[in-house]
Each structure stands twice: as structure tokens, then as C-alpha cells.
Amino acid sequence: MSSDYSFDLVSEIDLQELTNALDQTRKELAVRYDFRGIPTEIKFDSNSPKGAPSGLVITTADEFKLKAVRDILESKLLRRNLSLKILGVPKNESASGGQIRSTIPLVSGISADKAKVVNKMIRDAFPKSKTQIQGETVRVVSKSIDDLQAIMQLVKSSPIVDFPVQFENYR
Keywords for this entry (predicted)? Predict the structure, then answer.
């Protein structure tokens, strides 16, 4: 048995669950009385070169309807076990026909700057553990399983970590 235990800290979006949450939101909007006859659209904004969605675009009648759509979407995301941290800061603008369009970027991946901040936070709290930045992944290694679980709780509860996190390859 190995004397070191490890896990990888990553930030990914489960696109299938996101698609399911969007479908559920569309279905709920279709049957809600206050959205009857009001054109509301939620779609992926895929401007990224890889074809993966880079954000969401919501188009609806006014500011109040937009807030209602966001509330419904957030509740569906939570039900599908997706963190609300995947939704970036929305940018609202006027659309044709007096409607309002909100572009919400999707947040995934750990940038080098954020990885350094997380790395420093873990090393300050647990000096015996080792961390390595490997691209968009932070590998955490420790001799104690209890330390790794405490590090997971630290990362989940820290206000410094403003992006969704998952723990993979727990060995």
C-alpha cells in the first residue's frame, strides 16, 4: 500500500446536466401563467473554437421576467447538483422588439492565478501536504487521509475559491 494519498482539484461543468437543467427551465416557462404569450428564449452561446458553450443567452420581455427566468434556472441547476458558481457575471443589454438580452458566461477551468492562490491557501493551512499545479488541475498529496478530507472541506468553504470545484482521482 502506498504511503501517500492524493486527489486532483479541478473545475469542470457537466454539460449533460446543464443541458437537462436548461430543458427543465424551458418546460417550466412554457406552462407558467405569467409567461404565457411572452417570448422567452434560453440558448447556449458557443463562440468558443472547440464548440463547447462559452455561456448562456436569455432573451425575454423585461427586467422582471429576466429575474424570474434566472431564479427558475438557478433552482434547476441546484436540483441537478450543479454549483451556481458556474454562472459568471451577467451582462444585460437591449434586444430588438423592446426585449432584454442577458449574456451569462460559464465559468470552468482553474486559471494559473487562481491555482496559485489555492495552492498558497492549502500550504498555509496544511504545511505537511504537497500541492502541484498541473495545467488546469491542482494535485494535492498528503500522508494522511484525514488531512486530505480536511483540505477538501477547506477548499469548499473558502470564500477565496470563487469557482466551482470537484475532486477527482482520490487515492
Answer: Nucleotide-binding
